[in-house]
Amino acid sequence: MKKIFKVFVLLVLGFILVSCDNNEIAVEKVINFDSNGGSQVYAIIHSSDLVGTLPEDPSKDGYTFAGWYLDDEAFQNPLDLSSFDLSELTGDIIVYAKWNINQYSISFDSNGGTDVAEITQDYNSLVSAPNDPEKEDFIFGGWYIDPEFTTLYQFDHIASNDITLYAKWQDSIFTFTLNENDEATITGITPDTIDTYLEVPATVSGYPVISVALGTFDNHTNIEILNLPNSIETLPMALLKNLSQLETLYIPFVGEDRNATGARAMLSYLFCDEEITSFIDVERRNLYITSHLTTVFVTDATTIPSMAFSGVSLDFVGLYEGLTTIEQWAFSSYNGIQSIYIPASVTNISPTAFMNNENFVSIYVSPDNPMYLSTIFDHALYNKDRTKIVMYPGGIPEVQFTIPEGITEIGDFAFFGSQLSRIVIPASVEVIGMNAFENSVHLISVTFESNSQLTSIAEGTFFGTNIIQIEIPSNVTTIGHYAFSNNRNLESVTFEMNSQITTIEDFAFEFCNSLGSIIIPLSVTTMGMEVFFEIREITIYVEATVKPEGWNSSWSSDGTVVWGYTND
């Protein structure tokens, strides 16, 4: 969140200085500095017409300061000290810091192994581990930040400094069996005592590793980081069941194999030896996953299957390039993941992929992704041109959110289960998708800005919220099925002047038990079934004198109906 710091307050607006020679009036002007996430810069006051000297440049980890600008985000108008004339200002001014992202390098000391090329990337970008070095008669034991091998390096995001990593080597030897195609299945590890980091090789004795046998890790419960190679084609149920200390897992795919579906395509498949017969069993199966597990990287999949991580509590999931699709409910449920990285290759994310996740707070999308965009300011997911908000993480503890101006569409399930109490929808929004705010139980206020371009409120849009009152914008023609269903605190529904509403569909206001009255405009030609179901105390004022032909015969079996209502 941007912070504008001001240490000087003008005690008297328009404070003037009278020149002794010519009685000219000099008005003091304040220049405020928005450092855009950098270090604090205090405001300055000038009574002359030129800026003069600026404060010391701010600093920001991972970035180089590129000057002050009169405009934010686009940075087209730099502050030029030689020509900027304060006399043209009518009030205080804000200038904005521009930052250029730095690049940092990771160098590799392979300690007698094969050479590994240096990695240079932008600060905080997701970095993948390079291919492991090789050393005859040794097993690679991971990259460490110190030559004494006390701290294992986690490949996640580029730090704000250059570093050198050191390869550790172990004498461990993998035992294996071969199939008729000379493909290896790892069956054991010797010696029994190994380090907390274990990387299963992609080849053993020149043979490609395509699987790991059940029981391979049973004597190695101390493993904290496990890296399975992309050469793996299939994994057995409960392979990881005894890894009680596991914290970080690198897997090529989720579940049994790359084509698995249903229960065999869930993370719990690798930890649980209990077959699942219905989705009711999902939460029970997840109990088998060690509570120490915080981070999972999926390194060689094209799809995250339906419910793959459903109900799994993790701090971070990193998805590697090559992934294209995240299916429905892949990360859903109340206690799911907290954050995720989505690579450039992902082009299809189901609207329900992250639904109903009260832990989910941030999403990071590769800047090279052609379809999706995330921002550091609100952590929401947008389409690439930022005209559609696709998803707002359900765990963000904000009270109010103002959808950015220019957004024309709110996607299906976009705010499902959010923590928001208040939402402001700009005039530019034309479409709100199905169930967009469903089960946002804290939501009590929805404000449509004036001249709203919204034309419909879709099925289930505000289902299960706690909105107290709402005014339907005049351009809305349709209120969909269950649009406000189960809003038990809804007291007032009004339509803007010159409303174009024509259709109110089935059960649109069912169980809105606090709704005492409503006026149905004359323009409504279609009314669905049981629109006000179970609202027994409601009085419905209808501007039409008789029931229009397009109204369902059971449009309202509850409450009192007053026909021919006028405002006179």
Task: Explain what the structure shows.
The protein has about 575 residues and is mainly β. Among the domains are: about 5-100, Listeria-Bacteroides repeat domain (Immunoglobulin-like); about 105-170, Listeria-Bacteroides repeat domain (Immunoglobulin-like); about 400-568, Leucine-rich repeat, LRR (right-handed beta-alpha superhelix), CATH 3.80.10.10. It is built from one helix and 42 strands. The strands form ten sheets. A nine-stranded mixed beta sheet has the order 26-27-28-30-32-34-36-38-40, with no helix packed on it. Strands 14-17-18-19-21-23-25 form a seven-stranded parallel beta sheet, with no helix packed on it. A hairpin with a 4-residue loop joins β27 and β28 (about 390). It is flat and about 95 Å long. It starts with a strand and ends in a 5-residue tail after the last strand.
What labels would you give this structure?
568 residues; mainly beta; Immunoglobulin-like; Leucine-rich repeat, LRR (right-handed beta-alpha superhelix); seven-stranded parallel β-sheet; 1 helix; 42 strands; flat; disordered N terminus
* Terminal-residue CA separation: 50 Å
Number of strands: 42
Tell me the CATH superfamily of the domain at 398-568: Ribonuclease Inhibitor
Q: Which CATH class of the domain at 398-568 applies here?
A: Alpha Beta
Largest sheet properties: 9 strands, mixed
Mean pLDDT: 88
* Basic shape: flat
Order of strands across the main sheet: 26-27-28-30-32-34-36-38-40
Tally of helical runs: 1
pLDDT < 50 stretches = 1-25
Residues in β-strands, percent: 25-35%
Share in helix = under 10%
Using only C-alpha atoms, the radius of gyration works out to: 30 Å
The oligomeric status of these chains comes to single chain
Alpha-beta classification: mainly beta
Please give the CATH architecture of the domain at 398-568.
Answer: Alpha-Beta Horseshoe
Tell me the CATH topology of the domain at 398-568.
Answer: Leucine-rich repeat, LRR (right-handed beta-alpha superhelix)
